[in-house]
Amino acid sequence: MHIDYPFIWTAFKFLLAAVPLTLLMTILPILFGFIIALLVTYIRLYKIKVLAAAAGAYVSFFRSTPAILHVMLIYLGIPVLIIKFGHIFGIGFNANKIPVFIFVIAALSLTAGAYLSEAVRSGILAVDTGEAEAGYAIGLTHSQVIRRIVLPQALFYALPNFVNLFGGFFHTTSIASIVAVPEITGKAIIAASNNYEFLEAYIAAAIIYWGITILFEWLAHLTDQKLSQLKGGIT
Amino acid sequence: MITIHNVHKAFGRHQVLKGIHLTVQKGEVVTILGPSGSGKTTLLRCINYLERPDEGQVEFGGKTIDYKHPSKKDILFLRRHTAMVFQQYNLFSHKNVLGNVTEGLTVARKIPKREAEEIAMAQLERVGLADKAGHYPNQLSGGQKQRVGIARALAINPDVILFDEPTAALDPELVGEVLEVLLEIAETGVTMIVVTHEMEFARRVSDHVIFMDQGIIVEEGSPHQIFHQSREERTKKFLHRVSPAYLYQQV
């Protein structure tokens, strides 16, 4: 089979334009997911009855189903809900006007929230319970112990996990292409089918993912080193 | 003065404390001895409610608190008037030495930061660690960590300090520096309840010695009474078993 090498370069330049959107679709879900994870963590730590069960179900569901389904469920389900509630409350809101990538970011935020919740949870388990006891013993309240002793250390321990999840989510954004969001993979599909040069376009996309991931892993390595310096020891 | 009445505590079906009464006068040093599993540490942890007693009351600072149904305010009152020094030090590992000592002052007692730091530095001076104020716990030796733990307890100027085997986790050559600090603060009139295996410390420093076994106080009295004139067979047996003469008889 003939490979059109110059077209790989053409596609590469074309796909670079999709990098900002792809990064945005990685960063925003991680940020919103982090807020969700903090909420879930608070609910769990305070053992709020009904909410704790709901939080558990949420984390379980989103970690046990593929992200591509979350995108489909949100993309197809939310407009149905909007139309239904719009009908009840008499608000004529056109769900079709919402840009598609908003649905994708919402769906991926929920996915990220579930994974980050688990990362924070394992961080909390790594905190020495004796330190929480020492906090109580000097007269701190439960919420002061959580805010000042447990969470700062838990987030610190969870940091390497966060970094890994970030890398994972960068690749997960590619599923947005199934709802025609022009991120890297979505744009590669466009370039491929417009020019009938499929392999070339996907090679270009792969090079971009690879390059950015290498850059990212290098940053992760640096943070890891910094962390083990702070923690001490050889871990 | 602190008085506890009739403290009961069970872990599952295992009765760890079977009705403990204890009175500690202001400025007194009380040591609690006993074989492992006798409930000494649990008793100490019940006093400041790190363990929830099943029954009992504590009388303290003009208040009587029911251990069975304390309000959140009661629990905070108890903890803000007591301090604890732990076997494993339990320093806040994300805070430096100064931060460890000021935490209870600025956060729990709302003392302004500058004043809190002055108090903290004075206590670090007392335990000989003023020069380590900026260090983090993982940069300290065990003995230094425990001295920070003691400074953290002293800083909040508690009515009583609870010591849970403060030298048990230390390397032998580091026990001395911690004992030295303990002796110094005992002499300055700090009320102390000390669970310990340091017999010599108990003998020399205590005003009152308590011997516990299987969840009850078997015998109590002055160090002289306990170490030289004990009446109970269990006390004698225990003291014999921890004596060098017994430990080395088979060597």
Textual characterization of the structure:
Chain A: It comes from Heyndrickxia faecalis. The complex is a heterodimer of chains A (235) and B (251). Chain A has 235 residues and is an all-alpha fold. Chain A has helices at 5-16, 19-46, 49-64, 67-89, 100-126, 129-137, 142-172, 184-195, 198-231. In chain A, helix 1 packs across helix 9 (198-231) and helix 4 crosses helix 5. The N and C termini of chain A lie far apart (49 Å). Chain B contains ten helices and ten strands. Chain B has a six-stranded mixed beta sheet with strand order 6-7-8-3-9-10, sandwiched between helices. In chain B, strands 2-1-4-5 form a four-stranded antiparallel beta sheet, with helices on one face. In chain B, a hairpin with a 2-residue loop joins strand 4 and strand 5. The N and C termini of chain B lie far apart (46 Å). The mean pLDDT of chain B is 94. Chain A binds chain B through residues 128, 130-131, 133-141, 144, 148-149, 152-153, 156, 231-232, and chain B through 48, 50, 72, 76, 79-80, 82-84, 86, 88, 90-94, 103-104, 107-109, 138-139, 152, 156.
How do the strands and helices of this protein lay out in sequence?
The complex is a heterodimer of chains A (235) and B (251).
Chain A lengths: L4 H12 L2 H28 L2 H16 L2 H23 L10 H27 L2 H9 L4 H31 L11 H12 L2 H34 L4
Helix pairs in contact in A: 1-8, 1-9, 2-5, 2-7, 3-5, 4-5, 5-7, 6-7, 7-9, 8-9
Chain B lengths: L1 E10 L2 E11 L4 E5 L6 H8 L7 E6 L2 E4 L5 H9 L1 E4 L11 H12 L4 H14 L15 H14 L4 E5 L7 H16 L4 E4 L3 H7 L2 E6 L2 E6 L1 H6 L4 H9 L2 H4 L4
Parallel strand pairs in B: 3-8, 3-9, 6-7, 7-8
Antiparallel strand pairs in B: 1-2, 1-4, 4-5, 9-10
